[in-house]
Amino acid sequence: MTQKPAPPRIDFSTIAIVLLALAILPTASAAHPEDRVSPVVTAVEKVRDAVVNISAEKIVLIHPDPLFDRFFSDFFEAPIRQRRRTQKNLGSGVILRDTGFIVTNAHVVARGEKIRILLADERELPATIVGTDEDSDIAVLKVEADNLPSIPFATDTSPMTGETVIAIGNPFGFSHTVTTGVVSATDRSLRTANRNYLDFIQTDASINPGNSGGPLLNIRGELIGINTAIYGGAQNIGFAIPANRAQRIVEQLINFGEVRRGHLGLHLQDLTPALADALEIPHQRGVVVHSIDLESPAANASIVRGDVLIAIDGKTPRDGAEFAERLARIHQEEIVSLTILRDGQPIEVELQATPMTDKVMQRTGWRRIGLRTDRPGARGGLRISRVRERSPATGVGIRPGDILLAIESFPTDDSAEFSKALLKIRRNASARLTVRRGRSVYQLGVRLEK
To answer: Is the pLDDT of residue 115 over 50?
Structure first.
């Protein structure tokens, strides 16, 4: 007869030990959460509440399809009108002062008619634009609230290539998203079709649409930059505006509502190999001074025609366009150090930029376009009092007595507006002028002189 096997013995002591261990593990993990608190976690907790989400709405006009318009008009007498559509931009921002001043990118709020700020505590507040500077892509907003969490710029901390950085933002609407990376490079320049962007911080921290205007932090949670761009067609290449540069722009926007550019009185041309040979200097990167404004900082510093400018504040630009960009960024009253080459010897010169006065801008209009204005027209605009021979203005038929209504989209109803319009196009190679003669209004394209 076959004997049945004995049932297995259950070792209750072993089970008890396993159950006790399982009960203890979560408790031990919860008892020591500091084991998981990395420097990144500490930095994010320090500044997270000062990061905001931004929504900017603007009205755009949708032009009707001409073929559909023609078909539609065969059946209905009423003309087809442009349709209006609300377009929303999403971005990020940083609260700089507890009284409600917020920094972001200018392109986030450009032409925004309704701007809303979502705080970390889920409050949603309307915001007004204090000022924008498209040249630096910086804007300052204001919300009516007090005692807000804020982060100052870390202007005494220079980013180091290879150090860990943290980006916080609102990519694709995902609030307070944190990404990390390193500083890939500093003093990076970008060139677009009509603009040079200078001295950016390059990072491989993920910066996506919606991150624009958010903070770039170092491992200590210090605000070292404002995220602004991603490099199209590439992965993990993002850029941020350095804190020291952003702070100067922000202070002017808060104090004046605009950035007040400075004037040195220098007019430059590229240093070509042929020109270098003619000046008997080794060909290198630089630009040549071809004229100087009277009673300008450059004239007072004894800079002369034919001097070769090789560095600005210790930095040697790649070409004439970058030299011009650096000079265009100078603020009034700013101290600028120039390195010039004269008779083969380098000379250091310091200048203090003066304000861009209406008198300075009248000279600019004369040099670049070839016209002067004197008084407002009877129905808006400025009367053109003088036109230079063989200038861009005479080339398109402008005559004294014509009324200049606008430069590009910027009205010119007085000398202050004329000055602002010229500043807006100072990097342009060409411009569109709106001119009235009698009852007729003309749109004229001119190629600007340097």
So the answer is: yes
Same fold, 262-355 and 358-447: yes
**Would you call 150 a catalytic residue per the annotation?**
no
Strands (E), 206-321: 215-218, 223-230, 238-242, 262-263, 266-270, 287-292, 308-312
- Mean pLDDT is lowest, of 39-43, 271-275, 312-316, 403-407, for 271-275
Catalytic, 331? Answer no
**Assigned architecture for domain 358-447:** Roll (2.30)
Is a pLDDT exceeding 90 seen at residue 230? no
User: Does residue 74 carry a catalytic annotation?
Assistant: no
Give the mean pLDDT of 310-334.
83
**Nearest 5°: phi and psi at 43?**
-65, -45
CATH, domain range 36-256: 2.40.10.120
Q: From the candidates 92, 136, 206, 212, which is the catalytic residue?
A: 212
First to last CA, the chain: 115
Per-residue pLDDT band at 28 (split at 50, 70, 90): very low
Whether the predicted pLDDT of 29 surpasses 60: no
The one catalytic residue in 55, 135, 136, 137 is: 137
List all residues 6 or more positions away from 373 whose beta carbon is below 8 Å from its beta carbon.
Answer: 362, 365, 382, 383, 384, 385, 404, 412, 415, 418
